[in-house]
Amino acid sequence: MKTTNNKDKSAAPQRLPSGGRGPFLKVCGMKYVDNIQQVAELQPDYLGFIFYEKSKRNFEGIIPEIPKSIKKTGVFVNEIPEILVSLVDEYQLQAIQLHGDEPVEYIQQLKKLFAERLEAMSPKLKSRTKPVEIIKVFGIKEEFDFSVLEAYEEEVDFFLFDTKGKERGGNGVTFNWQVLNNYNSKKTFFLSGGIGVEEVDAVNKILKTDLPVYALDVNSRFETKPGLKSIEKLKKFIKKVEKSL
Predict the structure, then answer these.
(1) CATH code of the domain covering residue 65
(2) pTM for the complete prediction?
């Protein structure tokens, strides 16, 4: 969703690594083949697939052919590292989102397994293989100790801040975004948790701050049932966000 409209680009901050005007968009909790293809036509930057049996959006199907510009993202909760890596291979995932209580040591072990996987590839395949992006999730409600992020700084590509709730994501409610005023890291992050069309104005206020928001992560507020996204709602959201930048 990195916008390229013709508005005065000097009026908005350049917050993305590419120098473009953000944010990127991730649509998470995909489940149904036809719906995956329909959402992919909207050209989000990431599509999320949840590999967690306790989730209502647990994915066990086939991912249809989608544009290569869209990064297929696997969402995992305290998964056995070897199983996670096997699913990355099976579904050709470009990013993983760790939504459990994974310590730094777990991520280091994953990176070691990914390195071994790369080493075992043929030179031709190795040259075409990009590193798997690692996104670490942290739940927030009314307060958060950002010092816990320090140990993860060098091990992950992005943080993701979601609403701490009963479910591991997809709770449909926002957390207190004022807490983000205490964020003192330069690492870019995904903003998640109950984001819907009605939150665009609030999102826009955050995007106008110096916070390094890399992407917006949407899910349950755009569903007609768990895993099935409303295309019309997504279109409305994308249009409204792009118009506000």
Answers:
(1) 3.20.20.70
(2) 0.90
